[in-house]
Amino acid sequence: MLEQISTLSISKLQKAFDLAAPRKQYLFVDTGCEPLYTDEPFRTETYSVVWLRQGIMHLQADLTSTVITGPAVITIGPNVTRSFRRSDARPDMQLFFFTADFLLETLANIFYLDRYRFFEDNEGHVLQLHEQEAFRLASIFNLVSGVFGRMHPNEPQLMRSYGYLLIHEIDAIHRSRSAGQQPDEGNLLFTRFRNLLTKKFWRHRTVGFYASNLNVTPKYLSEAIKKQSGKTAGEWINKAVMLEARVLLQNRTLSIARVSERLSFSDQSVFGKFFKTHQGLSPAEYRKSLSQ
């Protein structure tokens, strides 16, 4: 595992994939390179588009676990905590990473990326593709592959254009999926709960807070979430806190007391008991295990 894997810059991604030519704002990784398989959650400073041509990948993105079978496309924004596990069927994939500054360099609208919720939304990270959809995605990635690292004089400009193409093509697929669908009330509440939890867990850990913001009673929320997912609202809250705690503890520049403070625990002792209850190790023991 890379040291302090919790947030990966472009340069750290290059190191992880053992790529030579330095890039500061975008990166393309072709098939044959191993993805970052690790049980430890991490983030990147980039937006990521993964084209899974075939094979199987296990993805944990924030609070959502998904087994993905190619052909599929995966979109993940910088704020999303993720981890990947390998399967017996080795994935055949290509990956395109880019920073917001790179994509927005020629645009007047600095909120352009905010329109595309599939980079951040729990429900939108993965699209299983039909044959024609897969063909269109493959065509764009073939263009990317034909330019990146081949000394093309206009490589940055073309890579930016291909980024726009990918975003608009993926958006069109999402729109076609949602057209005419009738939302399920229970699933809609579950989605709203998880999206709110992703934003607020670091400060609020009571079911009552989320129930109040979603205009339901705590009992109704817990029962509805349990019916949808098999876990209570309280279990989802604990899962979110633990996921963030594991990310923060990988950063050795943060003291355990500082991690506790960031997660709004009353003191380090309370945090330590909470962490050990859910992880089976104290925060210090967990941090030590990362270097073994």
Your description of this structure?
The protein is of the alpha+beta class and 292 residues long. It has two domains: 7-178, Jelly Rolls, CATH 2.60.120.280; 185-289, Arc Repressor Mutant, subunit A (Orthogonal Bundle). Helix content is 45%, strand content 18%. The model has no long low-confidence stretch (mean pLDDT 87).
The oligomeric state of the chains shown is: single chain
Helix content: 40-55%
Please describe the biggest sheet, giving its number of strands, its sense, and whether it closes into a barrel.
5 strands, mixed
Biggest sheet strand line-up: 1-3-8-5-6
Query: Which structural class best describes the helix and strand composition?
Result: alpha+beta
Number of structural domains: 2
The secondary-structure element order is EHEEEEEEEEHEHHHHHHHHH
CATH class of the largest domain: Mainly Beta
The radius of gyration is 20 Å
CATH topology group of the largest domain: Jelly Rolls
Number of strands: 10
Distance between termini? 10 Å
In CATH terms, the superfamily of the largest domain is Regulatory protein AraC
**Uncertain spans:** none
Keywords: DNA-binding, Transcription, Transcription regulation
InterPro entries: Homeodomain-like_sf, HTH_AraC
Pfam families: HTH_18
Protein name: HTH araC/xylS-type domain-containing protein
Short description:
Helix content is 45%, strand content 18%. The protein has helices at 10-16, 100-104, 131-147, 155-178, 185-200, 207-213, 218-229, 233-250, 256-262, 268-279, 283-289, and strands at 7-8, 26-29, 38-44, 47-54, 56-61, 64-69, 72-76, 82-85, 92-98, 126-128.
